[in-house]
Specification:
The chain contains 13 helices and nine strands. The protein is α/β, with parallel strands linked by helices. A hairpin with a 4-residue loop joins β6 and β7. The longest helix is centred in the first third of the chain and has 17 residues.
Length: about 280
C-alpha cells in the first residue's frame, strides 16, 4: 500500500495540492484499516468476494482489488462532499485494479452476488438506519462469511469526531457543548457531521443482531488496547485527539497499564469492534 500512497501523493502535489491534507488523513485511515483487517484477510481465499461498506475515497478498496480480491465498494454520493468525490476519482484513475462501485446507502443495498467477507471502518455511526444496513449486508453474505465493523460506542461519554464529552443523549450533548460543536475545531462541515451521527451503541447492535436468527455476534475486546497504542505511534491520528487525552494515554502505555482496558466489558468501552458471522 505504501507505494500506491506515494504515487497518489506525487500526483496531488503536482496537480491538486488542495487535496493533499484530506488525502493524508484518508491514507492514514486506510493503512490502519489494512492492518486491522490483516488477520481476517489472510484467512480468505485469494479471489474472495469482499464488500466494503462506506469506501470513502476507495484507497483500501483499490488496494484489496490489487491484492486479488473481488471487491465491491458501497459509497453514496451527496452534496457538500465534492473534495471527497474528486479525490476518489483520482485514486480510481491511478489504481492498477478497481473495485466494483455501488453509489447507494448501505441500508438500500441489494446484491445478486454473495460475499465471503464484509467490513467498514468508522462508517456505521454515520448511517441513517444501522439496523437496516446490518440486515442488508447480512442478506449479501455467504454462509460462514463475516461482517466486521469498527465504530464508536456512544454509551461511553465521549464523541471522537469533535473530541468532546457527551451527556446521556445527542440532543442534551448538543445543548451543553453547542459552542464546541459549532466551531468544529477544523472540521469542514461541523453541522453536517453532527447531523450524520446516529449515536449507535453496543446495546443497539446486540438488539439488531438478536432480531436476525442467521447471525452470530462477537465483540473483539482487545482492539481498544491497539487503539491506545495507535494514539502514540500514529502522529496524524494523535493530532485529531485532545492534548489532555494524549497526556493520559502516554503514561498508561509506557507502564503497560493500557493492556488492562481489554478487561473492560465491551458495553463500557469507547469503541466497538463487531464481528457478525452468517450461520
Amino acid at each position: 500500500m505504501d507505494a500506491f500512497i506515494v504515487r497518489i501523493r506525487s500526483y496531488l502535489d503536482e496537480r491538486a495540492p488542495q487535496l493533499r491534507t484530506l488525502f493524508d488523513t484518508m491514507a492514514t485511515e486506510a493503512k490502519f484499516a489494512y492492518s486491522w483487517l490483516s488477520e481476517d484477510l489472510a484467512r480468505l481465499p485469494g479471489n474472495a468476494a469482499v464488500l466494503e461498506v462506506g469506501a470513502g475515497v476507495f484507497l483500501l478498496s483499490c488496494q484489496l482489488a490489487a491484492d486479488g480480491f473481488a471487491v465491491t465498494a458501497i459509497e453514496p454520493t451527496g452534496v457538500g462532499f465534492e473534495d471527497f468525490e474528486q479525490l476518489g476519482n483520482i485514486v480510481l484513475e491511478l489504481s492498477s485494479e478497481r473495485p466494483s462501485i455501488e453509489h447507494c446507502k448501505a441500508e438500500n443495498y441489494t446484491a445478486d452476488a454473495r460475499f465471503d467477507y464484509a467490513f467498514s471502518l468508522n462508517v456505521m455511526e454515520h448511517i441513517d438506519s444501522p439496523d437496516g444496513a446490518i440486515a442488508r449486508v447480512s442478506d449479501a453474505l455467504k454462509p460462514g462469511a463475516v461482517h466486521r465493523f469498527l465504530c464508536p460506542n456512544y454509551i461511553f461519554p465521549y464523541e471522537p469526531h469533535f473530541n468532546i464529552p457527551t451527556f446521556l443523549t445527542k440532543n442534551l450533548s448538543r445543548r451543553v457543548m453547542r459552542r464546541r460543536i459549532e466551531t468544529g475545531g477544523g472540521i469542514a462541515d461541523p453541522h453536517g457531521l453532527w447531523r450524520s451521527l446516529n449515536w449507535i451503541t453496543v446495546l443497539q447492535v446486540r438488539r439488531f443482531v438478536a432480531s436476525d436468527s442467521t447471525l452470530e455476534l462477537r465483540f473483539q475486546r482487545t482492539t481498544l488496547v491497539w487503539m491506545l497504542e495507535r494514539a502514540l505511534n500514529d502522529q496524524e491520528f494523535a493530532n485529531r485527539r485532545s492534548g489532555w487525552m494524549i497526556a493520559v494515554i502516554r503514561p498508561m502505555v509506557r507502564f503497560r497499564l493500557h493492556r488492562l482496558v481489554g478487561c473492560i466489558p465491551v458495553v463500557l468501552q469507547p469503541i466497538m469492534d463487531v464481528q457478525m458471522t452468517k450461520k
